[in-house]
Specification:
CATH architecture of chain A: Orthogonal Bundle
Number of strands of chain A: 0
Radius of gyration of chain B: 23 Å
Largest sheet of chain A: none
Shape of chain A: globular
Helix content of chain A: 55-70%
Number of domains of chain B: 2
CATH class of the largest domain in chain B: Mainly Alpha
Number of domains of chain A: 1
Number of strands of chain B: 5
Strand content of chain B: under 5%
Radius of gyration of chain A: 24 Å
Distance between the termini of chain A: 7 Å
Largest sheet of chain B: 3 strands, mixed
Oligomer: heterodimer
Helix content of chain B: 55-70%
CATH class of chain A: Mainly Alpha
Order of helices and strands of chain B: HHEEHHEHHHHHEHEHHHHHHH
Strand order of the largest sheet of chain B: 2-1-3
CATH architecture of the largest domain in chain B: Orthogonal Bundle
């Protein structure tokens, strides 16, 4: 059973003549065409609007103000605007920069570190997302749905930790070893579902999800045993890795942004080259878009399944390594949280292209970092950002809906955007 | 158990997984047989001969409201050895004779015999409440049955529903909140069903009207529901715990007479309304899907929508209806987490069981009763794991809690292998 995406039967892109005229007319046309950038931007707008509504209907003070809509309509809108404004202002301040810090730094020449801290934190959060998102995107392009990011992330971080405290070497040797260990751990965790799918036909969606729980349990078990557990600790906390195993800071010790970002960008660039230029990447893409054609051309789809899940796992494992060796330095239970799942949404947001994944990661990282600040400052739970992110991906996954809401012309002529292949692929 | 054969891969293109009359390939039967022999040997040497002389295990069979039954006492060593030998013999039969029919059944018998030996071994020197173990199995299996039935409803009509986890969360949340605020249990049930239906409708709307990728929409619905319920729990429920998150729960209903039957009575006939509901739904969905005109239409839409459309079936309407109905079922399953169990809603309380339900559906090959067997298997693993943790068998609890997931992987790769979903499952239908 090879589910070939149903192409709409009769929908040749109606070629529209290039508009002529002054630049503003041309750019208005370009905007109204509803291309990828515009759709993504509008998706973000939808996400923020939804988040704003959610804040208004769940905050007691604004609800109270809306209760008196009849007697004091101005107050209802004013209170809502203030609440949402504060929340989103904090979202911005916490993730990009604070205008007051900027004026302070410009006026006094000091406080640059404070000014750049939010940006640095956003880059720190983006690093694992870029790595894991690229990994998941590779899988999607090959028609394989790697939903096991959580497990691979833990596997990568675990191996990196073992090499981190188990090996004693100078930074120039130790750090690359830690990076390799992270990739190797994730690769093993990705190989298992790949192998099982190729050999027995077990669907990767089920196997990877089950592996998530298995690795979570494995981690909490190992954290209570020697040699991983911190000596003299009864808590489930691992040993701390020495400084020779850590990813060095890029801009001084006060900003947490580290060499993990460089690794992530290199990986994204490498993945982009790999998928577009290498023979294996071409094989992956063919099998992803039409497995039957791939088989006819003599491509080994089982081998491709194993390889792509292993590589995908390795990249997610690198993500686990990047947070461990970059910012955390020790493991605890439930390490990584939802990064493995966020990687899926980021891959979708980036439309499976490494460059898109980088941009999507930056956006989601900014929302997360700002969300933490918002929670501390206004008490609005950070889970709001998860909701906003979900709405964004809803919209990105259904460009037709965005076009309908905003009355955009259809550039892709009813093209259906399919990432996955159902169960049979 | 690596039993993937060329035969089964090639035939995935066409119809059944093996030649007519043979549901399970020979290699897979041999693999299952060898597996039974292997665990039988482990049982003989590890558990039977490993146990000390004279140690006994006690299985308690009594439980309210059944008539009293005296416990069975079993000496560990002879029981383990005899049962393990029986298990190995079943394995030998399976591997040597490779019966044309009933392969899974025979394998299941072998596993049950082994499980008996294992339980005797685990309870050595102590007591095990057999009735509670089985009742726990049923309770753990119930949400999975709802989830899997939801999946069956959606996927038989050709829409992949990976959002079950999200519908669980939404159902659990809203059922708890409405029940708590209104003091009406049935209003809570209704709210759970409605929230499941809402997300079913969103899945249907985005994937049917706009042709969005169904798996993606499903994953995002899960993310959305997780974020939303977490947010609302912290922002709305927690500040007002007493009125908004203290729901009452359904208590068990003992069915007259039947609940008095020893062992079976308290396990099957002294449960709450959600367990009975799951049993009824199971039968209803099965009959409706395979023995009514409606079911034939649904299945034809899931297998070949173009053909269904030519005979005048409105493909999209059938899909809308089924996905929303599936949402209702998943929402009910979600409600069982709160008002059918502990009452209070807590963040991420469904703990990935929606995905396990999906696995149960696939294991059951998109059939209600197949899914039930998977749900019971998983439920048993969960129930057993909590009993083993209490019995203190010397296995660390995180390793024990892996067991249900490891078993699922083993089952999916070893027993099920390449499955054949409804042919049009996950493929958008374009009217034209």
């Amino acid at each position: 059973m090879t589910a070939i995406p149903a192409e709409p039967a009769a929908a040749p892109a109606t070629e529209q003549p290039e508009p002529s005229g002054p630049w503003w007319k041309r750019s208005a046309h370009w905007l109204a065409e509803g291309n990828v950038a515009v759709v993504t931007f509008l998706a973000v707008v939808c996400g923020l609007v939804f988040g704003a509504i959610l804040i208004i209907v769940t905050t007691t003070s604004t609800l109270h103000a809306w209760g008196h809509l009849g007697s004091n309509p101005k107050h209802a809108f004013g209170a809502s605007l203030t609440t949402v404004g504060h929340a989103y202002g904090d979202l911005f301040t916490g993730s990009i920069f604070s205008p007051s810090d900027l004026t302070h730094a410009l006026r006094t020449g000091h406080g640059w570190v404070t000014l750049f801290t939010p940006l640095s934190e956003t880059l720190v959060s983006a690093t694992p997302l870029i790595l894991a998102g690229t990994g998941v995107a590779l899988g999607f392009s090959t028609g394989v749905f790697n939903i096991g990011g959580q497990g691979q992330y833990i596997a990568g971080a675990l191996c990196a930790t073992y090499v981190g405290f188990g090996v004693h070497a100078p930074l120039a040797i130790h750090m690359p070893l830690v990076i390799l260990a992270g990739a190797a751990g994730g690769a093993v965790a990705g190989f298992i579902p790949g192998f099982l799918k190729a050999r027995t036909g077990a669907h990767e969606v089920i196997v990877t999800i089950m592996l998530n729980y298995i690795f979570l349990d494995l981690l909490s078990y190992l954290l209570t045993t020697r040699p991983l557990q911190q000596p003299g600790q009864s808590n489930s906390i691992s040993q701390t890795i020495p400084s020779s195993a850590t990813l060095p800071h890029l801009f001084g010790s006060n900003l947490r942004v580290n060499a993990g970002l460089i690794v992530a960008l290199l990986v994204a660039a490498g993945a982009s080259w790999f998928m577009r230029r290498s023979t294996l990447g071409f094989t992956f893409r063919v099998i992803g878009s039409n497995p039957t054609a791939g088989r006819t051309a003599g491509m080994d789809s089982r081998r491709a399944t194993i390889l792509v899940l292993t590589i995908s796992g390795a990249l997610v494992g690198l993500a686990g390594m990047s947070t461990l060796a970059g910012t955390d330095f020790f493991l605890s239970t439930n390490y990584g949280g939802s990064t493995g799942f966020n990687a899926i949404t980021v891959a979708l947001l980036g439309r499976n292209k490494p460059s898109g994944v980088v941009l999507g990661s930056l956006l989601f990282a900014a929302l997360d970092t700002g969300g933490r600040y918002m929670q501390a400052a206004t008490g609005i739970p950070i889970d709001l950002t998860t909701v906003i992110q979900a709405v964004i991906v809803f919209m990105v996954a259904t460009p037709a809906l965005i076009r309908e809401i905003f009355r955009l012309r259809d550039a892709g002529a009813g093209k259906i955007l399919l990432f996955t292949k159902g169960w049979a692929g | 158990m690596t039993a993937g054969t060329e035969e089964s891969t090639v035939s995935t293109v066409a119809i059944p997984a093996a030649p007519e009359g043979r549901l399970v390939s020979i290699a897979r039967l041999r693999g299952m047989g060898v597996f039974l022999i292997a665990i039988g040997l482990i049982g003989i040497f590890g558990m039977g001969l490993g146990a000390k002389h004279g140690v006994k295990a006690v299985f308690l069979l009594a439980s309210q409201p059944a008539t009293n039954v005296s416990p069975i006492t079993m000496p560990v060593r002879p029981w383990c050895i005899v049962m393990s030998i029986l298990c190995a013999l079943v394995g030998v039969y399976l591997a040597a004779r490779t019966p044309r029919r009933g392969g899974y059944l025979i394998f299941g018998v072998g596993v049950i015999i082994f499980m008996w030996a294992f339980l005797v071994w685990a309870a050595r020197g102590g007591e095990l409440s057999f009735v509670q173990l089985l009742a726990g199995t049923l309770v753990s299996a119930t949400p999975l049955v709802y989830g899997a039935l939801s999946g069956v409803m959606c996927e038989r009509s050709g829409v992949v529903n990976i959002a079950i986890e999200g519908q669980f969360l939404a159902g659990a949340f809203l059922a708890a909140m409405i029940d708590s605020a209104s003091h009406h249990l049935w209003l809570g049930v209704l709210a759970g069903a409605a929230s499941g239906a809402l997300f079913g409708a969103i899945l249907a709307f985005l994937s049917l009207r706009y042709g969005a990728d169904q798996i993606i929409v499903g994953v995002v619905i899960v993310a959305f529901c997780t974020g939303l319920t977490n947010y609302l729990t912290e922002q709305v429920l927690t500040p007002d715990q007493a009125t908004l998150n203290s729901p009452s729960t359904f208590s068990p209903i003992a069915i007259p007479l039947l609940s008095k039957i020893p062992v079976i009575g308290p396990v099957l006939f002294n449960q709450n309304i959600f367990v009975y509901g799951a049993a009824i739904l199971l039968v209803v969905v099965h009959v409706a899907l395979f023995y009514t005109k409606w079911g034939l239409r649904v299945r034809s839409v899931g297998e070949h929508p173009q053909a269904a459309a030519t005979v005048g079936i409105h493909v999209l309407n059938v899909r809308y209806r089924n996905v929303i109905l599936g949402g209702v079922i998943a929402g009910l399953g979600g409600a069982s987490f709160t008002i059918g169990s502990i009452g209070e809603f807590s963040s991420d309380m469904t703990a990935g069981l929606g995905y396990v339900a999906l696995a149960a559906m696939i294991f059951g090959r998109w059939r209600p009763f197949g899914a039930l067997s998977a749900a019971l298997l998983f439920g048993f693993a969960v129930s057993l794991q909590s009993f083993l943790a209490v019995l203190n068998v010397g296995i660390p609890s995180p390793i024990l809690s892996m067991a249900p997931y490891v078993i699922t992987i083993a089952v999916v790769s070893g027993l099920v292998g390449r499955v054949r979903p409804p042919a049009a499952d996950g493929v958008p239908y374009v009217v034209g």
